Structure formats: structure tokens, C-alpha cells
Amino acid sequence: MEIKAISAFSDNYIWTIIKNNKLIFVDTGQAQPVLDFIKDKEPIAILLTHKHDDHVGGVIEIKKKYPDIKVYGPVETRDLNDITLKDGDNFQLLGENFKVIETTGHTDYHISYIMGDNLFCGDALFLAGCGRVFTGDYKKSYESMKKFANLDDNIKVYAGHEYGLSNLKFVKSIMNTEEVIRSYEEVLKKNKRGQITLPSTIGQEKKINPFMMAKSLEEFIKLRKEKDNF
């Protein structure tokens, strides 16, 4: 099994799980890069994390060409879903188990998927960051960070955007630790080479992600508002 990134728009990633020439896509915000990638492979499923167009915008066009592909997603994408999911659901694809966890705050019904030691978290968690709280419900977003922090350190984090460098610039301005500096320098080198900076790991995020490290809701809100204005 392989996990590959398909680039979309300016900084989105459409994560692609490949096994035995079959494909599962996560957050198909744009159709053409996905259609170009498929070639002679068999797409079987699309997993959606939330409703924003840069994550779901390609679904209809992909389904037109591949009508048998099944779309899984939260209640907020129900108009696109074949299977609507909620917190705690489990399902099997390509012989792999997928567990659904509710990770709201960025949107009202945002979900993430855990497959083995891989986390597909959309816009809930980023390298050294978290999604903007468009719902205004900072408590839900804070609780989502705590859920992520409780996962095993070895779990790889496949976020929906290439935000590592901008996030680490902010983090470096508030907690200039050795681990943060090292991560910033690594990400900067990869950016200059045009390389992807993901996945990170939960263990890494526990050391460099201030939103995951926040000790209280008040601290989380303060950090999120500072980042919004950075």
C-alpha cells in the first residue's frame, strides 16, 4: 500500500491511498488532477472530511466519469455522500479498517479518518497548526486538538494543505525552542526544493504545535486569534 499526494489549487493536497491498483481519494476538491492520476487504475472511494469547496468541489465531475465510486462523508456533505458517517463509525475498504472521529470547530461536522497509523484530518489539524474556527465554536476546536493529542505518537498526519512554513513562522515567534527551529529549517529546505512537507506525526505535533499543546481553552483561543492576525 502507498499513500501519495495529488496537488490541487495553490496549496491543497488530495491524499490517495493505492493498493492492488485500486484507489481511495481523500478530499477531492478539484477533479482534473484526480482524473489525470487515475489512468489505468480503479477508483473505488472518495472520503470527505468537511464541506468546503476546495475539499469537495471535484466530486460531481469525478462521479460522472466513474459512477461506481462511493463517496463517504459527514452529514454536512450529505448531498454528495453515498454513505454518511459519524463519530465512532468504522468501515472497511481495500482490506483496511477506517475509523471515524469527530473533529469539529473548523466546520460544524468535520470528521477525520484513522487508517492504521495514518490520520487524514482535512483542515482540523495542520503541521504546527490547526484550522481557522469558522464556526466560532473554539471549545469544539480545542476538544478536537485534545483528541489528536491522545492518539499514538507514531501516527502520521496527512493534512489538507501545505501550510507548514507559514505555521512555523508563527510558532517560532511565540516559542523559539530547539525543536521548533529544527522543524522550521527542515520545512524551509523542503519548500525551497519544491518538496512536500507532510506527513508529520502526532509525536512531532506534540512538540511544535502550540494549539495541541494549549493547557486551557482560554490559551487556545488566545493563540488562535493571534495566528488569525499574524
UniProtKB/TrEMBL annotation:
Entry-linked InterPro entries: Clx_II_MBL, Glyoxalase_II_hydrolase, HAGH_C, Hydroxyacylglutathione_Hdrlase, Metallo-B-lactamas, RibonucZ/Hydroxyglut_hydro
SUPFAM superfamilies, sorted: Metallo-hydrolase/oxidoreductase (SSF56281)
This enzyme's EC code(s): 3.1.2.6
Pathway: Secondary metabolite metabolism; methylglyoxal degradation; (R)-lactate from methylglyoxal: step 2/2
A UniProt-annotated Pfam family: Lactamase_B
Acetylation as UniProt keyword: no
Entry-linked SMART domains: Lactamase_B
Protein family according to the UniProt entry: Belongs to the metallo-beta-lactamase superfamily. Glyoxalase II family.
Protein name: Hydroxyacylglutathione hydrolase
Species annotation: Peptoniphilus lacrimalis 315-B
Lineage summary: Bacteria, Bacillati, Bacillota, Tissierellia, Tissierellales
Gene assigned in the entry: gloB
